[in-house]
Design brief:
With 298 residues, the protein is of the alpha/beta class. The chain is built from 14 helices and 7 strands. The radius of gyration is 19 Å and the shape is globular.
Length: 298
């Protein structure tokens, strides 16, 4: 069956996703608000009208605007699937909460898991976790990925999938800092063990399920990005050792202050998160912060 699919956001992941869906015999139309990002781009109404599904491949800062655009032209039975893994600055809202202000829970899903764009472009395998309340959304997505090497699973814990993606990006910063400090595999293995304890506890604290974070949506995604040369968030952590500041454009850096705020006084319970706060908000030397964390670690 040939489906008409719209992808909003023509960055690396949007284009990679386009290739995956096209390979299964579907018609894909890309749209980006950045002029020139899509050659011969059609009007947004033409992109969205009649679409069987719409994928939102935009950063958290642009998600609300993208939802408003889609809402204006999309039909009520069109499924919306978001790949945004961030928190909206100022509101502290995750992707599922923002999208829920525009669409019913039966109409949208959150796609997480280890899906590095660079690997999808090379037809490497990937693991997608689709958080959705409506099984029909999952069945549609599975059909769209039919000829690809993406193994797609469904979870009903939509908020947990969204939170896991956020925390994966934030914690990938820490693995980048470790790389910048020259930590070896032994020390990074210790860092991973701490993350395994912290991330599920935070997801549960913020309203998701711990088991969601323990799977591909959380720790699986962190393992892929925290050790990958492709990850912008990991690279941002490494670069802070060179530049002295984090790249403010990466989702992990954008979301971190909101995570600190949402966790509140409980931040002290989480060693890695506390270390990142010391670096990001208190401007402490990453080398000193990570050395102290490692010495305290058990």
């Amino acid at each position: 069956m040939n489906n008409h699919i719209a992808i909003i956001g023509a960055g690396r992941i949007g284009k990679a996703l386009s290739g995956v869906i096209t390979s299964s015999g579907n018609e894909v139309r890309l749209w980006d608000k950045k002029e020139g990002a899509v050659p011969n781009q059609r009007n947004i109404s033409e992109i969205i009208n009649g679409a069987d599904a719409i994928f939102l491949c935009v950063p958290s800062a642009g998600l609300r605007e993208a939802c408003a655009l889609v809402k204006e032209y999309a039909e009520r039975n069109t499924f919306i699937i978001s790949l945004t893994k961030g928190i909206e600055r100022g509101t502290g809202k995750t992707a599922d909460v923002i999208i829920g202000e525009f669409f019913s829970k039966k109409q949208f899903g959150i796609l997480g898991g280890p899906l590095l764009a660079e690997e999808l472009e090379r037809d490497f395998a990937g693991a997608g976790v689709l958080g959705c309340g409506n099984e029909k959304i999952f069945l549609t997505a599975r059909e769209l990925f039919g000829n690809s090497r993406i193994n797609l699973i469904r979870l009903k814990d939509v908020h947990g999938v969204a939170l896991s993606g956020v925390l994966k990006n934030v914690y990938s910063l820490a693995f980048g800092v470790a790389d910048g400090l020259g930590w070896g595999d032994n020390a990074k293995g210790w860092l991973l063990s701490k993350a395994i304890g912290e991330i599920p506890a935070m997801v549960k604290m913020l309203g998701g399920k711990a088991e969601t974070a323990l799977g591909a949506a959380g720790l699986g995604d962190l393992a892929a990005c925290g050790f990958s040369g492709y990850s912008h968030n990991r690279q941002a952590g490494e670069d802070v050792l060179l530049d002295g500041v984090f790249d403010e454009q990466t989702e992990g850096v954008v979301s971190a202050p909101s995570v600190f705020s949402l966790i509140g006084r409980n931040v002290e319970r989480f060693e890695i998160l506390s270390a990142l706060r010391e670096i990001i908000e208190n401007k402490r030397d990453p080398k000193d912060v990570f050395q102290d964390m490692f010495k305290r670690g058990k």
